[in-house]
Amino acid sequence: MMRMSLHVCAKVVAAALLVLPTLAPIDAYAQTEQYIIQYKRNPKFEVPLSDDEVEIPASQVVKRNRQGRVVAARLTEAEAAAVRRQAGVESVEPNIRIAVSYTPNDTLLSELPGLIGGKGVRAPQAWDVTTGSASKVIAVVDTGVDYNHPDLAANIWNNPAEVPGNGVDDDGNGYVDDFRGYDFASEDANPMDGHGHGTHVSGTIAAVGDNSQGVVGVAFGCKVLPVKAMGDSGYGGYYDIIQSIDYVVKLKKAGAPIVGINLSIGGSMFSNAWLRAMQRAREVDIVVIAAAGNSSENADNFPQYPAAFDVPNIISVAAIDSAGRLASFSNFGRRSVDIAAPGSGILSTVPLADPAAPYDVMSGTSMATPHVAGVAALVASANGNITARQIRKLILSSSQATTNLANVTASGGFVDASASVTRATSQERRLEVYGSVKRGSQPIVGATVRARPVDGTPGSSRSVTSGSDGSYILSGLVPGSYVVSVLKDGVTFSKRTYRVEIENDRKISFSVAR
User: Fold this and answer.
1) Any catalytic annotation for residue 142?
2) Residues 240-277: pLDDT tens digits?
3) What does DSSP say about strands 287-291 and 265-266: parallel, antiparallel, or unpaired?
4) Boundaries of CATH 3.30.70.80 in the chain?
5) CB 137, CB 161: distance < 8 Å
6) Which of 149, 197, 200, 371 is labelled catalytic?
7) In this structure, which topology does domain 431-511 adopt according to CATH?
């Protein structure tokens, strides 16, 4: 059996504010907000301002700075527009409120530079938008998780369709008592971590926040699903990894709110079966975050899997040190490694074998990967409508660019939780239809594949041509009803047209009639 080893701000809230020269009495302040009125330097205003001079009744003036010729007033929008037109008025603008960045009270927060340091993921700024949602879950396929750890227990996802300990497969998914995940290494429902790696990874993703103890996860409002694929020795076979991924896919199909899978593991041998499992994860809209590896190698030339699989829902993660440089142990690759994250000297949760030492420091791309998985969970919490592909694209395009990473990762930067979450709030759900056009195993090149919206679905038709391997992708579709068809002169297809409801990315392949 193939064995595989582990890699061992300010929140701004705009308050609308309005002003006018001849003011009517205001009956309902609920329709007003504060504005700042800045007057031009003018001899008339060199003397202390009076209510008559600014033409704002004293009852509506909140504060005034006579020296700076600035007034804060409570006004309606129409009044604000009128004041802007006054001679001598330089500007009228909302009195924006600023709050310090959200800071949880966890005692070891200052020892988490990966979250709050100068080259960290900027978690506090992201937390001003969201700390994560309990309805968003990251599956950790690893050595298991210490689900009793006091800094993790409250954030372990439980299967609501399963009754724990009754010896019955209540949800009919083929796994008895999988109330809090499953152990594929031992084939039982107890994914307890006897190694430490999976617990450490889980803490970086979602250690409980604001509990006045220990560390805090990037997405401490989210949940972790323990899936044990590696034994307590830290090794495991590809088969158990594949089983674990398919288990997560099955849960997602049954309605579990799984956003992503964290795979802080890797092997150097390509596996077609594992690739197919990654594709099945894509088909149920799961983003996979994978470690690039710890061999100090160019992964473009020496790929490590699953990070190197060519599937558009995978994010491959390198590690940086506290100075923002590529860590000495980290793999890299301008084509095959997507982004970097803090991975050197990371403090996180470890199993409670020694209750006096429930935290420890580890380094590796294994430690970088859960930083990105946590950001993926935050992004999904900020906008539950975007797809796994959109999460991936948004995280990569929002990275913090640095010359240290310009030629060693595809994005040229390291993950930025704040930028990713902020951009996520304005993203609209966009889907794709993808597949292949073939005669048996032979690709059909140059076939036209078209998606036409029907039954009130907005948008216009989209069409693409199948490539040299027969594959095609129709992107940018809104959810709705479509007729998807294929056409190529001189070729007869066994089924040329599909009428489908597209709510998630959809795979549709066409074959030539015999």
Assistant:
1) yes
2) 999 999 999 999 999 999 999 999 999 888 999 999 99
3) unpaired
4) 18-94
5) no
6) 197
7) Immunoglobulin-like (2.60.40)
